């Protein structure tokens, strides 16, 4: 079996196993998507309306913006892996609740340990504060965070503002684009 098939089987297992209560109201689960051998995994917060309908992460307006930023650093969606901390859409796109993160975290850990990225990039505060509860995204965005977290395959993390937030805030958009352009240097630094 190929690594892509193994990843599909992992996700199928979690479709059944995930205890998240959002599965009762979501259209479908939204597992991660992309290259199962990627050195970079992006983690967002939860699926939105488009993601819930299509079953893929970051396919709406924020996803298009993310694709533009990837292009700006010579990457494509096929080069990376992208997922969310919560795998089901919260009603009305509200923020995911702490218990929803806890219910989905086993799935995320299994994805990360399967892919074994060198760098985990947080898209927004929800994924970041799960792993770095004492940090504020406004203080650490665009910075390499180094922390050994039990049961995770890397100690290197990078925090970015969420693309959806930046779509509606010009200043944040410029900051996010500038932070995003640091990613190649961060990868170079940690893979030396």
TrEMBL record:
InterPro entries: UDG_Type-4/5, Ura-DNA_glyco_family4, Uracil-DNA_glycosylase-like, Uracil-DNA_glycosylase-like_sf. This is Type-4 uracil-DNA glycosylase. Pfam families: UDG. One of its GO terms (biological process) is DNA repair. Belongs to the uracil-DNA glycosylase (UDG) superfamily. Type 4 (UDGa) family. It catalyses: Hydrolyzes single-stranded DNA or mismatched double-stranded DNA and polynucleotides, releasing free uracil. PANTHER family: TYPE-4 URACIL-DNA GLYCOSYLASE (PTHR33693:SF1), TYPE-5 URACIL-DNA GLYCOSYLASE (PTHR33693). Keywords: 4Fe-4S, DNA damage, DNA repair, Hydrolase, Iron, Iron-sulfur, Metal-binding. Its EC number is 3.2.2.27. It is an enzyme of class 3 (hydrolase). One of its GO terms (molecular function) is uracil DNA N-glycosylase activity. The keyword Protein biosynthesis does not apply. Residues 31-181 form the Uracil-DNA glycosylase-like domain.
